[in-house]
């Protein structure tokens, strides 16, 4: 039998235990909430962005402009360094980043070659071996000739190529079966040229424009941005660009599209960023949020305008689905060219 004072003491102990339990639950909940907040990953060291090509390339320019805005606008506090890893149409850079598996302080910029180059057997890595972050822009192809060329438009060029495709030398910075080659082939096919007989020369050491100007090549297949200065100087003329509509901006607004010349085709040179394999989802979420901020910034809009890039922002499942669709399309074209690697 408990006396009154003993009951009070016992009840007091029970309430004390209940209060301790409630306090523990509250602390755990707060701890979990703090963990969720502190679990929002951010870089702890400088970030390395690989451009798998030489200085001045489309990859290099896009990566450096993005890094510039990230730092100048204070979007990312850590230093961002862009390093060039040219070779193999991108394969050297991809192999380098593949070795950084799980390291969230590395990334690289890519475009259609990450699809095409593995398909033609020049790289063991493709987009599925990395972690997509976000696509940021759409660039377009341009087909240029010397200013004194007899061809005034794409139809003139393709009429000659229909008669003898190999009589015209096409030069590009991409390897055979990669972007500069494929963008030209895709348009030429729609125009009725026998694409298996097209003579394409790959010049990956920066001599493409020189080869065009000295007469070693007839047509330069490249990106729009790479033609602006020479077109402005009157050294080359651009026969066509692969955008669906005319681009806005000084000089480039004068470049006719493929479609307005009666050729029902286009080619998008998308560019986006990828992390190494096995990169933590929290790190990917961080980078996606920063690329969203970049995409919406006025500074980045000015960069896009300067280089004639269109907005093409994607991430997550949308980006992954897009990449898979691009692979299917490239497989069909490379198979037709006879350069699809047999698995």
TrEMBL record:
Protein name: Putative tricarboxylic transport membrane protein
Family listed: Belongs to the UPF0065 (bug) family.
Cited InterPro entries: BUG, Bug_dom1
SUPFAM superfamilies noted in UniProt: Periplasmic binding protein-like II (SSF53850)
Pfam family of the protein (one): TctC
PROSITE patterns: PROKAR_LIPOPROTEIN
